[in-house]
Amino acid sequence: MELSVTQTIQDLRTDLAMELEMAKDEGKKVVGCLCSYTPIELILAAGAIPVGLCGSTQTPILAAEEVLSPDQCPKVKATYGRAISGTCPLFPLADCIISETTCDGRKKMYELLAREVPLLVMDLPQKPDEQEALTHWIAEVDKAKSFLEHQLDVVITSENLRDAIQRGNRRRHSLTRLFMAMGSTPPPVTGVEFMEIMSKIGHYVDYDKHINLLSQLLQTLENTVTDKISQVSTKRHRILWTGLGNSLGCSKVLELVEESGGVVVCQEGCGGITRTEDLIDETKDPLHAIAERYLRVTCACMTPNAQRFKDLKRLIQEFKIDGVIDLAWQFCQPFEIESYRVGELVKKEMGLPFLHIVTDFSQSDVEQLRVRIEGFIEQISENKKYARH
């Protein structure tokens, strides 16, 4: 697979669907995933292929709004719309889906989605620091294991789980190094290029081949840094992007940031570095270790979500950040409310410019966002001038 950055997300899904169809012809099973809380290692241990099914484009939303009310998160509507409209080539290939009770919109939508394909909703405890939460989540992970065994007609052994954990950790280690490469001054590629590359290589059928591809990309980026051949100007302001991510709605924000003189060098949250740097403990009981790691995932659905703020402070320092953009989808109440505390941390404690953006997957607000982002970048420039005097 060439590491081109020109393919669209829809192109990627079409290519992946063709590969999945061939894999299914050879007897492979496909399991759909809808969140960072999905224990991928269970799927790998079952000998199946995990595939992300979250909606990330505007096209299927109209079909979803025939059932769902318009005032729902675009991610919820796009995901359901893809399932019922036939616009996604991946949904028909899923033998089953694993989901979790994160936000209210998602879990109620899952009741309708379950009509389309066998679906397990894992009951995610939302006070992760409580001891009872881990006990409950271990039981839910065990239920997910049984669900996969039943749906896929397999037996998942402890040996299978340990092997899957080791493979998953290898992938996380490579992904973390890729994210860290963007911390160089200058970064090896722009934030837009990095997101497009990561979108392309984020889809896989052969897991081991995927890990090898990550290693090749890592070598390319690290060589770019070592040989000082990056085309990214050191004058660009370094931006951290936090909140929701990994969709076309995000790409328009990244593009505007970079058109305005910034470069996104770090992503915290969905699809970012904090989803990869936390490895699974390979010395513990595998089911217990898997549950521990996935309960540590940070999300605004958790209360308190203290680790997110520790991560933000650390990443701002490690990546030498000049300003922070916090992104939330329309009607996403948990992230909307938590953004106030993020702003407090960034502005009051870290002394940096902060911009909170609420948007959807459409292009209707691009010019409005352009004005706000240009003002944000100008604020960073003024801060730097003031700091020099």
Automatic annotation (TrEMBL):
InterPro entries: FldB/FldC_alpha/beta, YjiM-like. NCBIfam families: double_cubane (NF040772). Belongs to the FldB/FldC dehydratase alpha/beta subunit family. This is Benzoyl-CoA reductase/2-hydroxyglutaryl-CoA dehydratase subunit, BcrC/BadD/HgdB. It comes from Desulfobacula phenolica.
